[in-house]
Amino acid sequence: MKPYILVVISTELFDLKGVRTILSIASRRWTRAFLVAFIGLLPAACRDTPSGDPLAKVGESYLTSQALDSRIPVQMAGRLHPSDRRRLVDAWVDEQLLYEEAVRLKLDEDVALQQQIEQARRDLLTAELLERTYLKNADLTEETIQQHYLEHQDDFVRDRPSLRARHILVASRSDLGRVRKRLESGELFDQVAREESIDESAERGGDLGYFSEDRVDPAFWSTCAEAKVGRPVQARTHLGHHLIEVLDRREAGIVRDLLEARGEIRQRILSSRRERAKQDLLDAIRNRVPVTVFEDALTPDES
Fold it and tell me: Is 56 helix (H, G, I), strand (E, B) or coil?
């Protein structure tokens, strides 16, 4: 498994929903941030005789291979090195030890904590209800997106310069040298990016779409700003070594084209639909469930 670094730089062209998280797995070693995020996905313990292949046991509780695999995100399935799985198992052991200690100290009987747990349960159920409701109306046609774009042109006037670029991200200077030699020998940029880049954009040939200065690392932007269109340049950021090719520039004050605005339009439409869907759901429930607000109890007693 090659090193894998996901860096979300552009959200416009590829509709990445504004995510700014940086996850990195370099040389098959996960960053602490990624492991911490993953711990929350670990399955609860099984106290009965395990029905799958046991990976660990704490007291009378088991973690099975099947339970662990069921919580690994689809995009990571089959990519985990044995050492990565071991780290997840160790994290589960630590979490289970702490949980069982909390139960031994009868923290689960604390009234205030029980109220917090109940509130978390309510929040999770409510969120799941809304998510299932939203999914019923999540499909968007290209015609709907185009119509919204034409009717709201003023909303898409560019307020700052932006540019479109593609890049190849590697971990070391020697890797960067190898990439440059491949490009100088005539190999296509997108093909080299797919084979060499450790960024998530590799699957798109390194294409990052359009982005403005506020969306990327300062060093990345300054390099792009000084580069000539179509001429690869090098940059160094906290992610590693980049070979960047600027593909296009757009000035402030002009309307973004549909390709740039598509992701934002999609989010606008879906957000509006979700608000309507939530209100429709509430109205339907109110028709079935009597609701009374005791206004007198809300009014301060002036006597």
Answer: strand
Q: How far apart are CA 298 and CA 295, in angstroms?
A: 5
3-state SS, residue 138: coil
Residue 92: per-residue pLDDT: 87
- The letter for the amino acid at 221 is W
Show the tokens assigned to 234. Answer: 């090098």
Q: Quote the CA–CA distance of 22 and 175 in Å, as a whole number.
A: 21
3-state secondary structure 250-278: ECCCCECCHHHHHHHHHHHHHHHHHHHHH
Q: Which of 227, 247, 261 is nearest to 158 (CA)?
A: 261
> CB atoms < 10 A from the CB of 133, how many?
14
Mean pLDDT for 188-210 is: 93
- pTM for the model: 0.56
Maximum Cα–Cα distance for the chain, whole Å?
90
Band the pLDDT of 34: cuts 50, 70, 90. Answer: very low
| Residue 168 near residue 24 (C-beta atoms within 8 A) | no
Q: How many CB atoms lie within 10 A of CB 57?
A: 14
Strand order of the sheet with strand 22-26? 4-7, 22-26, 29-30
The answer on pLDDT for 281 being more than 80 is: yes
What is the β-pairing status of strands 233-237 and 240-250?
antiparallel
Q: Average pLDDT of 51-56?
A: 82
* Mean pLDDT comparison of 27-31, 99-103, 298-302, highest-scoring range: 99-103
Q: How far apart are CA 28 and CA 174, in angstroms?
A: 19
